């Protein structure tokens, strides 16, 4: 079994190392010996693991993926191009593909699945979501006889690290980001993580598998964490909440699904509140299985490489058996509903005038929009007078309209933090 | 695709219901319609789900499993016989088998795997361990490219419920057991659960998959929870520990594995300490993946049926593709070392004479056996004088010898609770 490796960065170098160090085990588990046929890199002359045979390196990825000797291509370059072109070329030549490329899968997974089916090859991508945590295989196979109702979790380690530091040390977003960068948890350009693009791609992949429907990143409502302040974190803490960036994929009451990524307050007693540092954790709720949780390292070279090699063994077994694994399952074709139709609860902090009748006026605005208030707390006096409102569940559109109306209210000096509240099952 | 169901109790009735209610989804996911060909029961005349067609019921399980029309047999009778005979008959006739039978798999899984291989059929058994929690498939497939070093967890819901009630209410073992029986968490004869047989069977299955070796229930060191007293629970609580029945499968420093089920004290801050009621949770530690946790409902009709149906979909897909899934992987053939060689830490409560020199004498006994003391606490005076010792890691045999010697010491009036301590990574 000959394997071509595209990319030799954080993940690729670990894949190469494990293929070498665990060659005997992997061969025994597959039933055939493995050989690394080549490693495509951008620059040959980078410093690399001295145990990696330099003769394997090539800058000609196109030639490597079409090499007639190669059986399986592992793609860990990331990004949409040239990864997509290379994967399609490999598949056209009958090679199976293992990839960790969440951005590509979430943007144009359909094209990859189509090509896999047409060429009778495998497309496996466990490593694209939540690193080493087995999540896609359980969704795709273990729960294939059940009806998944909701997937909710922390799928981005960088933002969890930043929010955890802000919560535990009182740091500002900028300071926590810098610390994450210094430790290698965040990239020099952190946009993909802190603006929620990475989590949104993962949410699209999870939703597609969970609901047997096609979901792309464009379908995902996405908000990042860059505007969260130390004051927000402190306010949340004072109310017994912690702020997490959540990915939420839910079947709604009608026949559709909602898929969203945004920061949310969750009670400190919720199991997701205890997920620290750069860890990931995902709840999967299914009608018969109930609530399952999966927890582990969501990123990093070795954990992601572990997921890649698990897929590689599966793909190799399939090739030896002359079959391909389960193909894309999108028969349910559930529509993705817009965020406005999603039912959520919200925390809203209002700076208000310190005079009588303000609460009544504010309550009236909520009532006019059919948004029911669960709790309201008055804090401070004079220029510091605040109203902290937590609502019951209502449509996100109604909440947005309420906030717009509140901004124009004379009694309201400013609308402060508006944040969704999750993890409480009260209506 | 025609399915025969053996057993229609707590799990079987839910399998029949889900096969009916989710027929369309399952057919779409497999790519072929499903039909329940028959349900083997011991007594036809029991009250049953009125939606189950009585014409499907039969007491002749032997005829059902050899029915030429049947493609897949689901076995949820439990127990070794007649389940084993029926499964082997079904396989001999070319039928694939999905089973939840942990006792049979742990006692004689090799015979079943051999029969599956010889007849070119599938043997799937996700439901045999931890109910709906996808655990076997991740071990067998997702981690196939990694090296699992340890599996540790709570795999028996009944005993977890009992210990949780003892911990949270101060109840005695007998009272907590009665409550569990009243709620249906424990059976009228609770032996299999409270003596650890059920957990030991699951540990054997987990260890076999994790270490690619053959492990049977006879290889598992097993201790139950029947001797745990309210005082033990209270003492553990006072020291910041909680008592859980753990299943632990670990690769040791040499080239072997240890597999054991016993009650242990774990710190209240450990994630397994927070697993309440009848829930299950399992940590899987692998060299590259790091520490993964799986959590969910470990038993119950619907969750177990969910796991059975997931396997059924996989088996059906394999049959349509004309292949069989991954077979037993025991190439590593690691020996199972006896409990005496296992390195553990222990909590030991000694009732001692209240006079000077006792601590020195006790410490000497530990030293003579090469067991290093981590902490020692003196409590009470006079007839209540106690020494509470927590040791560092040492071989279980050395600990046992130490305890035997302590019992004969004049200064020791009695050896009270001796319990292993887990979940702290200090040496």
Automatic annotation (TrEMBL), chains A, B:
Cofactor(s) listed in the protein's UniProt record: a metal cation
Cleavable signal peptide: none
An example Gene Ontology molecular-function term: homoserine dehydrogenase activity
Record keywords: Amino-acid biosynthesis, Methionine biosynthesis, NADP, Oxidoreductase, Sodium, Threonine biosynthesis
Superkingdom, natural source: Bacteria
Residue ranges annotated for the ACT domain, each copy included: 347-420
Reactions accelerated catalytically: L-homoserine + NADP(+) = L-aspartate 4-semialdehyde + NADPH + H(+); L-homoserine + NAD(+) = L-aspartate 4-semialdehyde + NADH + H(+)
Pathway(s) the chain acts in: Amino-acid biosynthesis; L-methionine biosynthesis via de novo pathway; L-homoserine from L-aspartate: step 3/3; Amino-acid biosynthesis; L-threonine biosynthesis; L-threonine from L-aspartate: step 3/5
Family per similarity comment: Belongs to the homoserine dehydrogenase family.
Function per UniProt: Catalyzes the conversion of L-aspartate-beta-semialdehyde (L-Asa) to L-homoserine (L-Hse), the third step in the biosynthesis of threonine and methionine from aspartate.
Protein name: Homoserine dehydrogenase
């Amino acid at each position: 079994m000959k394997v071509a490796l595209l990319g030799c960065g954080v993940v690729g170098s670990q894949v190469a190392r494990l293929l070498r160090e665990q060659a005997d085990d992997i061969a025994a588990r597959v039933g055939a010996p493995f050989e690394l046929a080549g490693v495509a890199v951008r620059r040959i002359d980078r410093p690399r693991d001295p145990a990696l045979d330099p003769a394997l390196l090539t800058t000609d990825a196109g030639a490597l993926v079409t090499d007639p000797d190669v059986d399986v291509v592992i793609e860990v370059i990331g990004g949409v191009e040239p990864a997509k072109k290379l994967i399609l070329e490999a598949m056209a030549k009958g090679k199976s593909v293992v990839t960790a490329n969440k951005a590509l899968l979430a943007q144009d997974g359909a094209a990859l699945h189509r090509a896999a089916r047409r060429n009778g090859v495998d497309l496996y991508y466990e490593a694209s979501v939540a690193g080493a945590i087995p999540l896609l295989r359980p969704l795709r196979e273990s729960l294939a006889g059940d009806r998944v109702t909701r997937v909710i979790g922390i799928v981005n380690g960088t933002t969890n690290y930043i929010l955890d530091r802000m919560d535990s040390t009182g740091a500002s977003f900028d300071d926590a980001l810098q610390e994450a960068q210094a430790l290698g948890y965040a990239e020099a350009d952190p946009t993909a993580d802190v603006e929620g693009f990475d989590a949104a791609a993962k949410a699209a992949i999870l939703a597609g598998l969970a609901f047997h429907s096609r979901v792309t990143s464009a379908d995902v409502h996405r908000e990042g964490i860059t505007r969260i302040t130390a004051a927000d974190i402190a306010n949340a803490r004072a109310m017994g909440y912690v702020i997490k960036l959540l990915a939420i994929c839910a079947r709604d009451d009608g026949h559709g699904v909602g898929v969203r990524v945004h920061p949310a307050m969750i009670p400190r007693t919720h199991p997701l509140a205890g997920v620290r540092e750069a860890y990931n954790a995902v709840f999967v709720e299914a009608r018969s299985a109930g609530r399952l949780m999966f927890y582990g390292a969501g990123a990093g070279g070795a954990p992601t490489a572990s997921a890649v090699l698990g897929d590689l063994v599966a793909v190799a077994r399939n090739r030896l058996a002359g079959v391909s694994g389960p193909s894309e399952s999108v028969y349910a074709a559930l529509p993705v509903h817009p965020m406005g139709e999603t039912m959520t609860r919200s925390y809203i902090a209002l700076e208000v005038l310190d005079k009588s009748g303000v609460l009544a006026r504010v309550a009236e605005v909520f009532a006019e929009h059919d948004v029911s208030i669960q709790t309201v707390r008055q804090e401070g006096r004079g220029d510091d007078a605040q109203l902290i409102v937590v609502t019951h569940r209502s449509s996100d559109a109604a909440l947005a309209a309420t906030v717009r109306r509140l901004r124009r209210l004379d009694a309201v000096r400013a609308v402060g933090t508006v944040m969704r509240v999750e993890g409480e099952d009260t209506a």
